[in-house]
Amino acid sequence: ERIALHASATGLAYLSACDPDYLDRYLSGALPAQTPDTLTDPDRIRAVVNEIRERGYSVNEGGLSVGISSLGAPIVGPAGPVAALSVSGPSSRICAERFDDLGARVRDAAARISRALRGER
Fold it and tell me: Which of 6, 57, 89, 99 is the S-S candidate for 73 at Cβ 3.0 to 4.6 Å?
């Protein structure tokens, strides 16, 4: 199944690792809402992508599925982003109080995979 990049934690994480030209091209296209909480404003998405770059992981509360929250981080190979990793679950369990801890775990796991793909330790 294809999922819109702007609607998911993995997609937003992936966009955070993309070069500015790719992000610009993506944001110039259609940005349909999957739920009432899906980010659809290009300027807001750009701001969120910048936050993800600083923090190292994305947060998506109900943007893809109502009642589901997720955190994601990009996986970057030698030529750039190739995938993203996420953890998701009911928003009652994946809640704001847990974002820092779970986000750091996802970020660190994605970084380990990225290093392995690049042949680094």
Answer: 57
Q: What is the mean pLDDT of residues 86-108?
A: 97
Res 121: pLDDT: 81
Query: Distance between CA atoms of 26 and 3, rounded to whole angstroms?
Result: 13
Q: Distance between CA 111 and CA 41 in Å, rounded?
A: 29
Give Dmax (Cα) for the chain: 42
CA 93/CA 91 separation, integer angstroms? 5
Alpha carbon distances (Å) from 96 to 19, 23, 28, 69, 102: 29, 27, 31, 9, 10
Question: Can you give the pTM of this predicted structure?
Answer: 0.95
With residue 84 as reference, give the H or E element that holds it: strand 80-90
